[in-house]
Amino acid sequence: MFLVGNSESILMRSENENKTLLAQEYKVLHEVSRALQSSLDIKEMLENVLWSITQFEELKVEQKAGIFLADTDKKVLKLYTTVGYFSEEFLEKEKEVPFGDCLCGRVAVSGQLLMSESCFADSRHERTFSDMTAHGHYIVPLKSQQDLIGVMFLYTNTNPSWYRHSQEVLISIGGLIANAIKRKQIDEELNRHRNHLEELVDSRTSELTQANTRLKIEIDHHKETQVDLISSREQLRKLSNQIQAVREEEKTRISREVHDRLGQALTALKMDTSHIEKKLPSEQADLKERLQSMTVTIDDTIKSVQQIAMELRPPVLDAFGLCEAIEWEAGECKKRYGINFDLNCLQDHVNLETNLKTAFFRIFQEILTNIVRHSKATNVRVSFNLIEDTLIFEVEDNGIGIKEENINSSNSIGLIGIQERAHSFKGKVEFDGFPGKGTKITVKIPI
Ligand SMILES: Nc1ncnc2c1ncn2[C@@H]1O[C@H](COP(=O)(O)OP(=O)(O)O)[C@@H](O)[C@H]1O
Ligand SMILES: [Mg+2]
Fold first, then answer.
1. Lowest mean pLDDT among 35-44, 361-370, 424-433
2. Rounded to 5 degrees, what are φ and ψ at 403?
3. Is residue 102 part of a domain?
4. What pLDDT score was predicted for residue 54?
5. Is CB count within 10 Å lower at the N or C end of the chain?
């Protein structure tokens, strides 16, 4: 199946000549394989291989050779590299050779080694050039397994006396070159992917770093804002506590003034009226009657004054204690709204400081007001205990139950007030609503 040259010259060689030939063959193969294993890029590697082959004297190649790479999709050979002198015209014309054209195109189709003795005599040599001189050819397919990777062409003397082994040697070399090209192409493809991946990783890393920096700045900013917020909240709390304290003092003062001064004035008025009434002669009955009705009015006014004074600040809170004040408040509530109370107030007498006592009492008043206004409750259970240094105050009603949205709403000023009062004594408040069953409010303050 190989095209055989014009002589089987090896038969006519002497023993010595054959040995030299074999040695040369090994040398070329050795150099080719060394070039193929180098770490050079594909082009340099192939150029070295071509130079090594052209050194093989017995092939009678001129120092001109080249390699086409196959584009099997487009069915063309593309000139990849050459060694030795080729004219501009040649390089331009041979840039692309369709499969089937001229000698190289034929080899691309057949996949078989082709030898041509003279470019002028061989009709298959279809492409010519103005400076073409007579030459012969080895055209070697570069196949890796069944894949055509390319075609290698070597220029020879015209009518060379073909060295018989040359065909087998060249076919082997063609296979080696094809494998090496394929390997390098895969390596280069892998490298491209790796570089691309590295670029991606780099750019992603830098994006992430930037995002991280932005986040850090934002976090710092948030932290500052938070600190500002906390401090201004603290200031507001202090202010509100101060206002509460001032209001409480005012209430106490007004309550006393109203109770004492107005009370005394009214009592004096009452005594005077009854004195005048007694002194009046009995025939002045209409005036007597007027004075009696005045006394009744004065009595009512004294009661109102006492009521007002009590509501401003029940004296029982100062005179006795929190439990007594709670009892009094609950009694008033029962009188007015018919709500029943179950009171379990701390039996042991705990001496609470006035501010804390006032805070609990005001909290209780606010809770009661809410029960009356919102809960539709009929029963209220109140308990006040000291458990492990914590005062626990619970008020539970059997009404409609407070809703979650009311507990968390910033509009629930009354509830916020309860929490703030507890907070100023480092305490906590829990609101629990049970729909249709009632509301439980627990205030815990450490002492
Ligand atoms: N004991 C309760 N039972 C049912 N709902 C309640 C009770 N206490 C409070 N609420 C609900 O919580 C809301 C907020 O209460 P509060 O802050 O005191 O505001 P206000 O009494 O002025 O409406 C009330 O409007 C009411 O809907
Ligand atoms: Mg309220």
1. 35-44
2. -90, 150
3. yes
4. 85
5. N
Nearest CA to ligand 1 atom 3: 375
Q: How far apart are the first and last CA of the chain?
A: 111
Residue 163 has pLDDT above 80, yes or no: no
Confirm whether 275 is domain-assigned. Answer: no
pLDDT of 72-95, one tens digit each?
999 999 999 999 999 999 999 999
Please state whether 83 falls in left (phi above 0), alpha (psi between -120 and 50) or beta.
beta
Ligand 1 pocket test target in 376, 412, 413, 421 with most atoms within 8 Å of CB: 412
The verdict on residue 294 lying in a domain is: no
Evaluate if residue 17 carries a pLDDT over 70. yes
User: What is the rounded CA–CA span in Å between residue 92 and residue 69?
Assistant: 16
Q: What are the residues whose beta carbons fall under 8 Å from the beta carbon of 245, sequence distance 6 or more?
A: 355
Q: Is the confidence at residue 5, as pLDDT, over 80?
A: no
Residue 35: Cβ-neighbour burial (10 angstroms; 0-12, 13-18, 19+): buried
Determine the pLDDT at residue 38: 84
Q: How many domains does the chain have?
A: 2
Residues 6+ apart with CB under 8 A from 433: 401, 402, 403, 404, 406, 407, 439
**CATH number of domain containing 151:** 3.30.450.40
CA of 374 to the centre of ligand 2 (A): 8
Residue-number span of the structural domain to which 400 is assigned = 319-446
With a cut of 70, say whether residue 1 has pLDDT above it: no
Which pLDDT value is given to residue 349? 60
What pTM, to 2 d.p., does this model score?
0.56
Q: Tell me, yes or no, whether 270 lies in a domain.
A: no
pLDDT at 179: 92
What separation in Å is there between the alpha carbon of 226 and the centre of ligand 2? 30
For residue 333, the domain's CATH number is: 3.30.565.10
Q: List % helix, strand, coil for the chain (3-state, nearest 5).
A: 60, 20, 25
